[in-house]
Predict the 3D structure of the following.
Amino acid sequence: MSLQQTYLHCQSLAAAKSHRQLLWLSGEQCWCYAQLRQLTQLLQKQQSIAVIDPINAAPGSFCQQHISAKECHKYLGFEHQTLVFDGYSGFNPDALAQISGTLIAAGVLILVTPDLEHWQEWADPELDKLWVQPYRKRDVSRYFLTWLKSNLLQDRQLTRYTQTAALETDYPTGDRTQVEYLGGSSLASADFAINPAALQYQLQLVTDIAQHISANSLSQTVVMADRGRGKSALLGLLAKQLAADKSIYLTAADALAVQQVQKFAGQDLTYHTPDKLLNNKFSLPDNSLLLIDEAAAISVEVLLRLVKKFRQCVFSSTMQGYEGTGQGFKLRFLAQLLNYSSDCKLFSLSLPMRWAQNDPLEGWLNKVLLLKVQGDDEVNVAATDSRAVIAAGKAIQSSLTIRLVSAAELIASPGTLQQLFSLLSQAHYRTTPGDLRIILDSPNMSLWLASCGQKIVGVCLVAGEGIVEQFPVDQQQMSGEQLAIAMHQGRRRPRGNLIPQMLIGQEGLLQAKSFKFARVVRIATLHSQRRAGIASKLLEKVQQWALKTNYHYLAANFSLQQDLIEFWLGQGFSFVRVGNQTDKITGSYNAMVLKPLQPQRQLFNCLRSSFSIRLAFQKRRIFSPKTDLSSLQALPVEQHRAADDGLDRAYVHWCKAQLYCFAYQQRPLESVAYLYYQLLQQYPQWTQPEVLNSAEKALVDSYFFDLLPLEKIYLGHKLSGYRQFVKSMRAIARLQLEQLADNLEDGDSRWN
């Protein structure tokens, strides 16, 4: 049978049960593309899309649309009859999870891969994204590809078409009869793409939710569903039904995620980011209703703040992990929402809208990408008795086992891998299938599991970062020492190595090039086992490992939240940095904590000694007035240098070096602003007429002393925007640096 005959047969099988079918096309790259071109005439007549590198797609197109993996998130809510996913362009798990949901009933997913004989030698382009210095591409493992291959071979419902054999397949119906092409208007119609029973249930829910909202002026509504169940369409239909009585607002973590809502609303629903809605200047009418799509992709803290601002909210959440985690939303947010609001009602959509139940493609994707999160079945959304938690914690610790596990162990034990990924998905709203490949393949990642018997109760993922000065020569022919200098000047931001990048490129501490950091990327425990001391035990093991492997610091970088501040302080970490920009999802600033492991603490002492000064300036000038800064009050700060004290020579020399990187290199203004401010106070002559003209002095004063909002500065000084403002400030800094002619020597190594 030809590929065209095989494709038509897959389409027939899928249409018979309103399912979707997986067609696995494997062979040499050129051969696979030649086979796909045989389908061009068929695929061009229908809604078809190929996820493929444009270079690989040349010289012709076989689908109506060709997109790259990084564009897949733009198509959430779209509908396609055929999807080609080209593994030769790189196997990106997030892209597959995102685009696969657009395939409707009777649709076929054609997955292109090398043949089994050459699988291990496959130079997957995605491998190049999984290494960070000092590692190389050759250090990336292939355990995810082994996991993928295993799941393909085990699936008994897919159809396989190989170069080495005409056809190897397991037909669930056993019928190989040639069928006619099923494309055309019938497949594109809404009636075919929608499960009638699911449609009827969806419309009933719209009516029920509208009645609940109309009957309760302080109501909260939650709609939960797996992918493809029509929850976004439900929000749009709800908005359409309530448009006459409500002022409706729409938000989500990503503006692209709400297109389906807007499509079904039948009106112009304007999207607003969560942080914009929380702006104190954003006023609301009394009849306002907030619709939140993909609520699981927004932090719990931001959701609770939205609840307090809006009298009525509808939360829609996917229960799978392709763009956030529904389980974390369910376990962490719902308990607090139910305690906060007595008029909270939960709804769910269980029937798939775009395909029939027991869809074989959905089952395969759930298995290979671990999308079906296993919830913590011991969790009750009601408050847990603290005495019971303490008693359970003691029992758990007596039988707790913590060990460092390898990727090979994980793929050899699918049950363990599923538990691990479910736990990560429950604990963090940004866990996606892409994290699975990072865990399995990235050479700088280490993973610890805490278990009681066969049950995983805790996990800690750690990234090794640094030592930058020892990095080998990179693709831009820079040695590690040269790279560190370029980072310090703001000219390079090497992939990964987050902590060294922040300390060198943002805080200006070039000495960080000499240190090795173990960064805690994720740490999580089962919701029912929180406060049982499991996370503390995990960190103890990580610290023991870090000491043995010659790390200088343990570190973490996370969104500022009250409970996280208390946790990290309780583990002996110190806060050394707060970022300069808010996260658009959490609405919070990120914080860095460090814990020294070696006697050399100069870097740590420098950060601690200036932390209070930096934070005070950030509160005055950097932090947005619309941001809730209450969590910052819990940060312990030590005042080591009063703002009006004279600055010692070594410190002034260091401040000058940082300002030089801004004035003559590419360091961000925000990274040196608090130092710039101290120098302006130390040297008032810098703003005198012999240095700056009146317009230049006014610009400096408006930013550092008058603290005008940036928008007013742009308007008052006739600047086009932020870029022109920074350009003007760089020019001013150059003029001022010329006045600092005190011939300071390098001085104290503390600040070098």
The chain has 29 helices and 19 strands. Residues 20 and 107 are 5 Å apart (CA to CA). The two ends are 70 Å apart (CA to CA). The chain has a mean pLDDT of 86.
